[in-house]
Protein 1
Amino acid sequence: MFRNCHNIRGMKRRKLFEWLGGVLLLGVAVLFSACEDDQADIVFYSGSSLIEEVGTCTNAVSEVTLFMNGRETAEVGIAYGKGAYQAATSDVEIVRVEIVGDRLRLSCGEKEGRAVVMVSDEKGNQAGLWVYTGLGSIECAATGKTAVKAILNGNVIADEALQSMVAEALQGYRPMEEGGTLTFIPQNVEHWLLEGEEGTVKWTRNPMSGESVEGTYRFGYDEQLMGEPMECFLVSCEGEVHRLYLNPDLNRSRETGPVSQYWVEDITAACPEDVLQQLPEQARVAYFMETVTWGGFHVLAGEE
């Protein structure tokens, strides 16, 4: 009897413990779920909405670049947070911030550099976004692929002997060695390929010696070389004037690299007179040079 009573009490005790255990586990689960609901990995994204479909490129961003010469503001979305967002910048002289709903607005301060913008939500979750500011520039690096050709009416003259003579006469002409760079700093990065737009240029002719010059440029269209309008940069550096035609034009939309450009310069004036006399009337001498850029605009080196 005592054994049975003991067994009954034991059963009741076990059931009580099981019930208590279930309540405790439920409480822990509820507590864990509540904590989990409070936690969030805040994500920043470009565009109007976050792209998160499998197999597609995401538009999530971890850094933003602002240019003080034409692209001074930007706006990014905030995803996965718990609302009531607040933002703070590590340096208000570099970047200013504003929260509008679930959007973060950024604008250039008075000086170039980099700063981190911290965004927090009502549950205390935080995320940081690096912001870089400075002058926007695009750098074209010489690949070393060059050629000198005599052309007529926009076409290379099909005379190998004549082309060999021209190439030999101008074999010393090299405005930029392999690895040299031609860097354009427009007055406005948004309009830099509009006719009449101007800016400054840094031309590193020889990367080994560090030889470089600075000057100005003006963008427009010119048909003098090919007989039809071509995009042309009139570059002036320390008394030298270079009329650089772009064929094809610089890619206006691609933000990753590398992207090749093929420059054509009219160097007829540099050709020896005795060689010019052997060319057909109206013929021109052109210098072809390949360069490469890595993506679109970047903060001018040394400005960060």
Protein 2
Amino acid sequence: MINKKQEAEQFTIPGGVEGVLYPPGPGGQFSIAVVSQDGVYPAKGRSMNDVCTETMYVQEGRLTVEVDDATYELVAGDVLSITPGQKYRIRGKASTVDVITPAWDKKQNHILEEEL
């Protein structure tokens, strides 16, 4: 199976995030997104997935990721997995490759507008 870049869906998210989401892998087991961030995601509150695990590989740059009550500083070469039910927020400027299991479905993602 091969996916060409022209098959990927471009996206932009308020807060300084843009990227491309490739079509799901075999059987919908995973999807891959290539993401550029220069800002904060989500712009307000925290994000949470009901089903998907997001595993981020930092290609370049630096991110501060708040996951539940922990804070992680990520640089090029670092990998972080965010599992279903964890509340998270990402700040910084970086390029990442995100592997999402099972394949991404935006209906299962929620922005929780709570005070941080």
